[in-house]
Each structure stands twice: as structure tokens, then as C-alpha cells.
Specification:
This protein has 253 residues and is α/β, with parallel strands linked by helices. The chain has 5 helices and 9 strands. The longest helix has 17 residues.
Length: 253
């Protein structure tokens, strides 16, 4: 405040506090000396405000679905708040993840910032959904106890795209949520046979174009999935003890 002693350390602390509010694009504090004391000149440049947000190109995933998912991921960009390029980039990345989770691994998401006025901006997310990528093959590494066909049959939601599964849109498209569910099914297969320490590692995904000679818009992408396994040792039951417990589940001892 005016009349207080000049303290550079305190000014630096106040500078950081003001910057951390997140409302400024630029900030500087300069000092001018005079016989009667020091004058501080604080120059601020406010961030423009987001006036509107638009999503274009999305047909398979609705705008409502995108907004709900961004809110869930705490990555939403709201109208009325100061524009932050970092927050917009975070939202773009989250939208890309939404499409990947739904099987659209070839989707591309970009954004642009349009001027409405000097202090107001419009954020536009430009979405090219591409096509869902069908599964061409599923292979395993490190499996010795069970053959590939046995393990593949344990996967109910992740299947190879074949002529007799043409109507099974969900299972023949790589979907992260479906794959995660099938990982538990794979573990269940091994657990049922005594392999309690089995580990299913992250899949190796190989995306390729099935018909590279076709025109770009006619090209169809496929994916090969390789799943590494660490089967571990097989365990057998050694002894079974039956003991009396009280109402709290504790033994008499």
C-alpha cells in the first residue's frame, strides 16, 4: 500500500498471487524512483473471455456425450470463463480419448479460436471421426499353458472381424472398455486352473491399412492386437482346515 516501506520480496509474492488468479494474459510490475519515494507501475493484460463453444464434424458421438464426458474428466471448457489455451488443449486431448475408447482410433480432433470481439473469443473443436477400426487378428505372447484359440474364446467382447461376425459391430471393433472387461475374463481362465499370479500386460496395437491401393476415402484401417502374458506358477490346494469361530468371525484362540 502507499506509505509502506518498499519490499522487493513482498512485491514478488504479490506478483505471484495476482498471476495465480488465472485472469491475466500478461503481467508486469515496474519501479520508478523519485526523491519522495518509489512508484510502482502495474501493467496487466486481461485474458479474453470465452463467449461460445462449438463442436463440428461429430455424428457418431453426440455433443451431449462429449460435454458429459469432459465434465466427468474435469476437462470441460465453459463459456464465460477466461480463455486458457492450455485448458482448450486439455479438452482436445480428452475428446480424442473419448473417440479412442469408442473404437474410432483414426479420429482426429483439432481446435481453432475465432475472434468475436477484442475481449471475446469462440472456441471451435473440429472433429474428423474417421471410421471404426476392425480387429484383424488377436495373438498372445508368453502363453504355454493354453493355446491361442482357448484364450481367444475366453474373450467375449473383443473378437476378430470375420465374415460370420459382420453384424457384431461392438465385439469386432477395438474398444478399451470392452478389452478391459476381457482382461478380467482371461485372468479368470487362469485362476480357475490354479495360476493365481497371472499377469496380462498392456496390449501391443498395430494399426494398418487393409487396402492401401484404394483412394484415401475408400481405405479401410484394421488393427492387430498382441497380448503379452506372464502365466506364473500353478498352485494346488495342500490342506483344508475347518475351525469354529464366534459371531465376530474370530477363532476361540
Amino acid at each position: 500500500k502507499v506509505g509502506e516501506p518498499y519490499d522487493p520480496d513482498r512485491i514478488r509474492s504479490n506478483f505471484q498471487s495476482l498471476w495465480d488468479v488465472g485472469l491475466l494474459e500478461n503481467l508486469s510490475i515496474e519501479m520508478e524512483r523519485a526523491p519522495e519515494g518509489v512508484t510502482l507501475i502495474v501493467t496487466v493484460e486481461e485474458r479474453p473471455t470465452i463467449k461460445d463453444i462449438e463442436y463440428t464434424g461429430n455424428k457418431k458421438v453426440s455433443t451431449t456425450q462429449i460435454k458429459d464426458k469432459l465434465k466427468e474428466l474435469k476437462a470441460e471448457v465453459k463459456a464465460g470463463q477466461p480463455l486458457s489455451v492450455r485448458d482448450v488443449a486439455k479438452a482436445r486431448s480428452a475428446i480424442a480419448d473419448i473417440y479412442t475408447e469408442n473404437g474410432y482410433r483414426s479420429a482426429t480432433i483439432e481446435y481453432r479460436i475465432d475472434d468475436i470481439s477484442k475481449t471475446e473469443k469462440k472456441v471451435v473443436f473440429v472433429i474428423d471421426e474417421g471410421d471404426k477400426i476392425k480387429i484383424a487378428a488377436i495373438h498372445f505372447q508368453g502363453n504355454h499353458v493354453f493355446g491361442e484359440n482357448r484364450i481367444r474364446n475366453a474373450m467375449k467382447k473383443t473378437k476378430v472381424n470375420t465374415w460370420y461376425r459382420t453384424l457384431s459391430e461392438t465385439s469386432t471393433t477395438y474398444n478399451q472398455a470392452n478389452y478391459d472387461a476381457d482382461v478380467e475374463s482371461l485372468k479368470g481362465l487362469y485362476h480357475a486352473h490354479g495360476y493365481k499370479d497371472v499377469v496380462v500386460k498392456d496390449p501391443i496395437l498395430d494399426v494398418f491399412v487393409k487396402n492401401p491401393q484404394a483412394k484415401p476415402k475408400k481405405q479401410k484401417k484394421r488393427i492387430r492386437i498382441t497380448i503379452p502374458l506372464v502365466e506364473g506358477d500353478q498352485f494346488f490346494i495342500n490342506e483344508i482346515h475347518i475351525v469354529r469361530v464366534n459371531q465376530n468371525g474370530q477363532t476361540p484362540e
